[in-house]
């Protein structure tokens, strides 16, 4: 069975990639069932890989957020017109997909042997595979930590303004999207600098490109190490008290490389936000984007450049940065 399932899974992802949906999950049934229906592979619009295991309405909720990039949640889905509860095992990291495929085989084989106790099978297999699913590098590096805190401070600002509904539709940075936040027709790109920094790195020709009918705001968080500041776990805990979508917040944090199980490793590293700046990207804002060149050679596969904002700081809406980020209002 092992080889047959492994082959089905590999072929399944290729088939699903040809019909990736917008905002939903494309699914493919597997030749194994629980007591509530067939197990299925799922591919969502962000490219994350899912194993969906149907369970009954009275089955206990199954959840696990301890792994950095593999999460387990229980949620209802409508697939082929049928609404069922599913245990959703999802992997967010492309570099872990091969390992996740092997874990799927172990899960499916476990379910085939014990279709009535899906939750127990998932808990057992996930524990066995947890170390293999830990991303290389362990804790977040300093730059990654500061960048994540900067984005979370903007998320906190948006939450205080009542703009946070479903977190993963708003906070799109962890999904490797072009911009960090998407608020309808307005996007916000967040950069974090140190106490004296004024230079930010722009990734690609799309990052500061403003599409037709859209607005783009560049936000810069000045973050300084401070003994009386806030740590990453403290910031996360504050967000959990104000944001209703805790599952979505957990998913996005996991994609960014942070899980509660690692909280104690970050508590001693505290920071304070000493300044917040924001610019509305307009035709005169200095940048390179897709309109800067008549044509980009196909051999150029990536563009990255540094932008010094020191001379632009007096023109930033430092006092009204929050208003510009939340509403797009420059007045």
From TrEMBL:
It comes from Cryptosporangium minutisporangium. It holds the Pfam family DUF4420. This is PD-(D/E)XK motif protein. It comes from the Bacteria.
């Amino acid at each position: 069975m092992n080889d047959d399932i492994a082959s089905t899974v590999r072929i399944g992802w290729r088939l699903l990639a040809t019909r990736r949906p917008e905002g939903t999950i494309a699914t493919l049934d597997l030749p194994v069932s629980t007591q509530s229906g067939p197990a299925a592979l799922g591919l969502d619009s962000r490219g994350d890989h899912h194993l969906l295991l149907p369970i009954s309405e009275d089955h206990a909720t199954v959840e696990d957020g301890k792994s950095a990039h593999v999460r387990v949640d229980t949620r209802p889905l409508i697939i082929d017109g049928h609404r069922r509860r599913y245990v959703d095992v999802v992997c967010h990291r492309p570099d872990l997909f091969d390992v996740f495929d092997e874990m799927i085989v172990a899960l499916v084989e476990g379910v085939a042997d014990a279709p009535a106790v899906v939750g127990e099978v998932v808990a057992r297999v996930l524990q066995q595979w947890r170390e293999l699913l830990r991303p290389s590098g362990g804790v977040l590096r300093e730059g990654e930590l500061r960048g994540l805190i900067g984005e979370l401070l903007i998320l906190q600002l948006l939450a205080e303004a009542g703009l946070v509904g479903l977190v993963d539709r708003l906070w799109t940075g962890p999904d490797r999207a072009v911009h960090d936040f998407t608020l309808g027709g307005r996007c916000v790109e967040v950069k974090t600098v140190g106490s004296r920094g004024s230079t930010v790195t722009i990734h690609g020709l799309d990052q500061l490109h403003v599409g037709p009918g859209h607005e783009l705001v560049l936000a810069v968080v000045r973050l300084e190490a401070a003994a009386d500041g806030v740590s990453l776990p403290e910031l996360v805990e504050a967000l959990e008290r104000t944001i209703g979508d805790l599952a979505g917040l957990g998913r996005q944090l996991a994609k960014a490389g942070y899980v509660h199980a690692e909280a104690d490793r970050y508590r001693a590293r505290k920071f304070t936000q000493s300044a917040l700046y924001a610019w509305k990207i307009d035709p005169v804002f200095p940048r390179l984007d897709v309109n800067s060149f008549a044509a980009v050679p196909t051999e150029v596969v990536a563009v990255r450049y540094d932008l010094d904002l020191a001379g632009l700081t007096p023109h930033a809406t430092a006092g009204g940065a929050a208003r510009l980020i939340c509403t797009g209002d420059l007045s």
